[in-house]
Amino acid sequence: MKMPKCVCPLCNKTNDLNRVITAQSNQNVIYKCLECDYTLRNIQVSKG
Fold first, then answer.
1. Does the residue 45 lie in any domain?
2. Residue 14, domain member (yes or no)
3. What total number of domains does the chain contain?
4. Which domain does 20 fall in, by range?
5. H or E stretch including 31?
């Protein structure tokens, strides 16, 4: 099974979604680039 890719908005490197996205129990989602350590917190998501 192929995993979706995420592109870092800072360095434009791609990584598998499951390696760079963390979902917390309070419904916050965190993105962290493995290449440049760019972090984006509190990403808005919708339930569904």
1. no
2. yes
3. 1
4. 5-40
5. strand 29-32
Question: pTM for the whole thing?
Answer: 0.81
The Cα 2–Cα 17 span in angstroms is 10
Q: Is 32 exposed, middle or buried (0-12, 13-18, 19+ CB in 10 A)?
A: middle
Torsion, Cα of 37, 42, 47, 48 (10° steps): -20
Q: Are 40 and 30 in contact (CB under 8 A)?
A: yes
pLDDT tens digits along 1-21 = 788 999 999 999 999 999 999
Question: CA angle 21-32-40, nearest 5°?
Answer: 95
46 within domain boundaries: no
